[in-house]
Each structure stands twice: as structure tokens, then as C-alpha cells.
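[Discussion] Sanity-checking designs against the backbone

I'm trying to build intuition for which residues belong where. Below is a C-alpha cell string of 155 positions. I'd appreciate it if someone posts a full sequence so I can compare it with mine line by line.
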């Protein structure tokens, strides 16, 4: 559970960082302290939101096996099914639906930003246009790669 939440939050933070870097380059300032703080917050949130599962579950022994063997052959199930269902709904909303909306918005905004910046570069000199086109192509490749990663992750 922790690794899934960390993956989702990391992809979401990458999309936010890309949005700032591409759509708001003058206001964006990436610092090592900000990155470290983001990583620590992601791991803390993932750890804290995964802990309830530890207290919701109970060990179930299978009656087909003798008691001395069940140490190796046990399963876990929720103590309270309704509580477990509510927790799963929370996880789906908080770590699938909401991040999907955030990433969808960010990558859509990035696409519009890249599209509009390529149209605005038509009034520049050839050398400036080539430099801008080269930079835009690199940004587009990065954005495409991240969109593919996000789509594959959610599939």
C-alpha cells in the first residue's frame, strides 16, 4: 500500500513540477530543499495513510490445518467489513481520482502552453526560432514521456 501511494504522489508531484517549469517558468524556482521536503512529505503521507490497514485486519486460521502448521498458513481479513469498505473508498478517491484530475489538468495545460508558445515564436529571427523550436521539442518529448508513464501506471 505504501509503495502504491508513494508512486501516485510522486507522479502527481512530477506533473505539478512540470506544469510550473513549462507554464510558469518565470515564477518557478526548483531548489534542493523543496525537493527533499516534497519527498519527505510524500513518504510521510504514504506511511500514515497506510497504517489503518494494520489495525483493521485480523489473522484468520484455516481449520483444515493443525494449529502448529497454521503459523505458516494464515490469511488476513478485515475485522469490520463496512469500515474496510470506507477506507478503500477513501484510498480510491484520495490516491486515484484526485491525482488523476490533477495530472489530467496539468498535462492538458502543458499541452496548451507548448502549443501556444510554438505559435508565438513565428515573429522571431531564424536563429532564435531554431533555438526555441529545439527547446520546445525537448520539452514536448519530456511531456510525452511523462504522459505515457502516467497512462501506463493508471492502466
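Best answer:
Here's mine. Compare freely.
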Amino acid at each position: 500500500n505504501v509503495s502504491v501511494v508513494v508512486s501516485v504522489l510522486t507522479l502527481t508531484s512530477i506533473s505539478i513540477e512540470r506544469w510550473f517549469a513549462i507554464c510558469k517558468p518565470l515564477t518557478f524556482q526548483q531548489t534542493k530543499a523543496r525537493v527533499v521536503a516534497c519527498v519527505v512529505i510524500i513518504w510521510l503521507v504514504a506511511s500514515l495513510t497506510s497504517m489503518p490497514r494494520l489495525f483493521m485486519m485480523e489473522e484468520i486460521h484455516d481449520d483444515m490445518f493443525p494449529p502448529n502448521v497454521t503459523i505458516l498458513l494464515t490469511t488476513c481479513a478485515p475485522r469490520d467489513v463496512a469500515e474496510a469498505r470506507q477506507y478503500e473508498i477513501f484510498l480510491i478517491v484520495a490516491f486515484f481520482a484526485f491525482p488523476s484530475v490533477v495530472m489530467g489538468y496539468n498535462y492538458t495545460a502543458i499541452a496548451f502552453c507548448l502549443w501556444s508558445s510554438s505559435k508565438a515564436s513565428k515573429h522571431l529571427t531564424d536563429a532564435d526560432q531554431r533555438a526555441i523550436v529545439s527547446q520546445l521539442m525537448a520539452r514536448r518529448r519530456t511531456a510525452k514521456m511523462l504522459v505515457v508513464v502516467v497512462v501506463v501506471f493508471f492502466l
